[in-house]
Structure formats: structure tokens, C-alpha cells
Design brief:
Blueprint (H helix, E strand, L loop, with lengths): L1 H33 L20 H11 L5 H15 L3 E5 L8 E4 L8 H13 L4 E3 H10 L1 H21 L22 H25 L5 H13 L8 H4 L3 H11 L7
């Protein structure tokens, strides 16, 4: 009886230890795959917008390497800025507070990528009267995330397949359950792409709007703004960018109502 009791205690203790080890291991894996990675201090700046300005490729490679906690929301907010620049969305009314400016989703069908067209359709369908403020747009994203996720997953897989074909990643590469690319699939070319991305993010953080204002036109500033939003940059200087520069909004609004700044 005593021996059986001792055996039961030993087995119970082993079970508790095993459970603790598994729990710690699980938490470690989750943190490793969900926490953003820091930018190396010695990484050189990359001043040009990377990857030919391809927002979808940049989103995918950023998520594969080390997503920021709001990666998907930042991507969808960056898409809105892209659509404003391309006039798929129109600044319908301008407000002193950029976040309260009203954006009109047009009836456009002019999209080169089918997933982008689908994201636009889902979001437009969720917006009453096709009009939304920046602040409300952020809430609509969260409310419709379940509908958006399949298309977002499709974007990631499509971009991963492109990377395989061009041998940016190993041909057998596949994403883990967190949609991250395990390091065993990295190539030299992939690490070069990552260095471009991180070097550009470092450049945006350190120079921000102070470096861009007055040195580039509003269209180029809109591109930097869009990528700053995509990369989740939240420094004091770039906060103005991520909320949409009021001057850019005003120019877009004036154009929509027929104001000619050149006359």
C-alpha cells in the first residue's frame, strides 16, 4: 500500500513537471512567433521605397519575418491611403481633424489584383452609404476581420509562391501556424529583402516627416505615408503621417470639388 502510494506521488509529480515544461515551451513558441523583431542598430539605411512600391509583397514579407501586433490592420489602413492616392476613394469632406475627414468609396472596378478588388468590395459593402471617416474605417476593419481573413491569407500564399518561383525562399517553403516563415526556408536573397525592408523602416523612423516635408511633392509624400502606415511606425513624428497629412487631404478634396490650384 505504501509503495503504491509513493508511486502515485512520483507519477503525479512527473505529470506536473511535464505539464509545466510543455506550458513554458508553448508560451515561448507563441511569443517567438507573435512578437515583432527589433531592427539591428548597425543596419544601414535604405532610403527608397522597397520592392518597387508593391504594397502586397511588402505586407507579406513583413508578416513572414516578424509581424507587428497590428500588421493586418496597418495593411488595410495603408490600402485606404493607396486608394485615396489612386482616386478609387475620394475625400468627400475635409475636416480640421484628419481622422474625421469623410472618405467616399467609389464604384470603381479598376483593380489589377483580384484580392485587392475583393478587399475593397468587402469593406465598401460594410460602409453605410459608401462614406466613412478614418476613425470609423478602423472600427469597420476590426468588425469585418472574419470576412477579410480568407483574402488576406490568399495574398500571403500568392506572394509566397512568387518568392518560391524566383528562389527568394526555398522551393519547399511553407508558413507555420502563425503565418511566419521558419528560418530553415531562408535564403541569402530573402535575408537581403529583409534588410531592405528593415533599413527602410529604420530610415522612416529616424527621418520621418521632418526629413520629407518640403523635400518631396505631395504624391511622393503620400507613398512614404502609406508605407509608414503599413510598417506600423508609431513614433511621435510619424503619427501625423499615419493619420493622413491634412495638406494632402485638402489637395485631394479640392481636386474632387474642382478647385484648381494652378490658376
Amino acid at each position: 500500500m505504501t509503495s503504491l502510494y509513493l508511486l502515485q506521488i512520483v507519477l503525479t509529480s512527473m505529470g506536473a513537471v511535464t505539464l509545466t515544461i510543455l506550458l513554458v515551451y508553448g508560451i515561448t513558441i507563441i511569443l517567438k512567433n507573435t512578437m515583432p523583431k527589433k531592427i539591428p542598430k548597425k543596419l544601414p539605411y535604405y532610403a527608397e521605397i522597397p520592392f518597387g512600391g508593391d504594397l502586397f509583397y511588402t505586407y507579406a514579407i513583413s508578416e513572414f519575418y516578424g509581424p507587428n501586433p497590428r500588421g493586418t490592420e496597418d495593411f488595410l489602413e495603408a490600402l485606404l491611403l493607396k486608394w485615396i492616392k489612386e482616386e478609387k476613394c475620394i475625400v468627400d469632406s475635409q475636416n480640421l481633424n484628419p481622422r474625421e475627414s469623410v472618405i467616399l468609396f467609389t464604384e470603381t472596378e479598376d483593380f489589377r489584383k483580384e484580392p485587392e478588388k475583393e478587399l475593397y468590395r468587402i469593406l465598401k459593402q460594410a460602409i453605410p452609404n459608401n462614406k466613412v471617416t478614418i476613425a470609423d474605417y478602423q472600427r469597420i476593419i476590426l468588425k469585418n476581420m472574419v470576412k477579410l481573413k480568407p483574402t488576406l491569407k490568399q495574398i500571403k500564399l500568392r506572394e509566397l509562391n512568387k518568392m518560391k518561383k524566383t528562389e527568394i525562399v526555398a522551393k519547399e517553403a511553407k508558413l507555420n501556424m502563425f503565418d511566419r516563415l521558419p528560418e530553415k526556408y531562408y535564403t541569402f536573397e530573402y535575408e537581403e529583402e529583409i534588410n531592405k525592408l528593415l533599413g527602410f523602416k529604420k530610415y522612416l523612423i529616424d527621418y520621418s516627416i521632418v526629413g520629407f516635408r518640403g523635400s518631396v511633392d505631395n504624391e511622393s509624400l503620400m507613398d512614404y505615408l502609406t508605407f509608414a502606415q503599413l510598417l506600423g511606425i508609431e513614433t511621435v513624428m510619424t503619427r501625423e503621417l499615419s493619420n493622413i497629412n491634412p495638406l494632402i487631404l485638402k489637395e485631394k478634396y479640392d481636386k474632387s470639388v474642382g478647385v484648381n490650384h494652378n490658376s
